[in-house]
Amino acid sequence: MTTDQSVIRTGGRRDPERSRWPAVTAVALGTFLLVTAEQLPIGLLTAVGSALSVSEGTAGLMVTVPSLIAAVAAPLVPVLVGGMDRRLLLLGLMGLMTLANVASAMAPGFAVLVASRVLVGVAIGGFWAIASGLAVRLVAPANVPRATAIIFGGVGAANVFGVPLGTLLGEFSGWRVAFATLSGLALVVLLALLAVLPPLAASQPVRPRLLAGQFRNPGVRVGILATFLIVTGHFSAYTFVSPVLQKLSGIDERLVGPLLFGFGVAGMVGNFVAGAALARRPHRTVLVIAVTLAAAMPLYLLLGRGVIGGAVLLIAWGLAFGGVSVGLQTWMIKVAPQAVEAASSLWVAVFNLSIGLGALVGGVIVDSLTLQAVLWLGGACALAAALAVWSARADENLR
C-alpha cells in the first residue's frame, strides 16, 4: 500500500477527518476471532481424533495447516485482489471464515475438516495482512500506536479468553458445537465490520514487484529479521513451557494452567504498555522488548529453579512477548510509510512461518539435546534480534 493507499479519501488530505474508533474495535474483534479459530483445535484434538478415527498427531494438522496456509495467503491475497476496496476484502474474508467454520462443524470426515481449515488459513492470512496496517487509515497519526495496540489486543484476548472458553464449550457440548459457535461469532463480526468500517480504496494495487522491492529497504529487512528471530526463538521455548515449569522450577502440574493464564494476561498488559511507549520511542521500545526476552528465557537456568522465580520470570516473559506484535508491526509502518500493506503482508507471512518453525526446531532440540537447550536457543535468537534492532538506530523514521 502506497502513501495514497493510506488515505481515506477526504478531499485529497492524507489524514482521516476523524479517528474511527468503532472501526478499530471491530477490526480488533476480527483478530480475536481469527486467532481463536486458528488455535481452538489445540484443545479439541482428543475429541476430534476420537470422533473421526484419527490419531491425535494427525488431528494436529488442524493447527499446522491453517498456520502454513496463512503464511502463504498473507502476501498472496493482496496481490490477487489487486485494487479491490479493502473494506470489501475484509468483509469477504470474514464471510469466508463464517462458511469455513460451518464446514468444520458439519464435516463428515477428517479430510473435509482439514479442507475447511485450509479456508480458515486463507481468511487468517488475508485478514491479518490487511488489518495489521489498518490503523494508519482509521485514526490520526498521533493515535496510530494506540490503535495498533487495540487491534493486536485481539490476539492476546484470544489466547487468554477465546481458546480456553472455546475448549470448555467443546468439552461440555461437543467439538462440532464449538466450531458452529465460531461461525456464529464470525457472522456477528462481519455485521459489525459492515456497519462501522469506512470505504478503504486502494489507489495502487500490490504487485509482486512492490513486495520484492521491500527487501531493498534496510528498515524492512531489519524488521523481518527481528520478527523471524524473536518469534522462532519464543515458540521454540514456549512450546515446552509446561515441562520447563514442572521440571526446572518444580511447579506442580495443577498450577501450570493458572500460570499460563497469568502469562496471557501479562501479554495483554505488555501489548498496551508497548503501544503507549511506541508513540514516543519506537526504536527504543522494540529494543527493550528484544533485550528482555533475551534475558528472561536463559535466566530460568539461574533464577527459575524455584516456584517463585519460575513464576516471576514467566510473567516477565509474557509482558515482553505481549509487545512483540504491536512493536514490530509499528516498526514496519514506520520504516515503510509508502508501502504499509506490502510490508505488513511480508511481516505476517514471516510471523506465521516462524511460529511453525519455532515449534518444530524446539521439538527436535528437546528430543536430541535437553530441555534447557531450548531456553538457550530462545535467548540467543532474541539477543541476535536485539543486535539487529540496535543496528537500525540511525533510521530517522524510528526516532
Automatic annotation (TrEMBL):
Recorded topology in the membrane: Multi-pass membrane protein
Sorted UniProt keywords: Cell membrane, Membrane, Transmembrane, Transmembrane helix
Major subcellular site: membrane
Annotated compartments: Cell membrane
GO molecular-function terms, A-Z: transmembrane transporter activity
Domain Major facilitator superfamily (MFS) profile: 23-397
Protein's UniProt name: Putative MFS family arabinose efflux permease
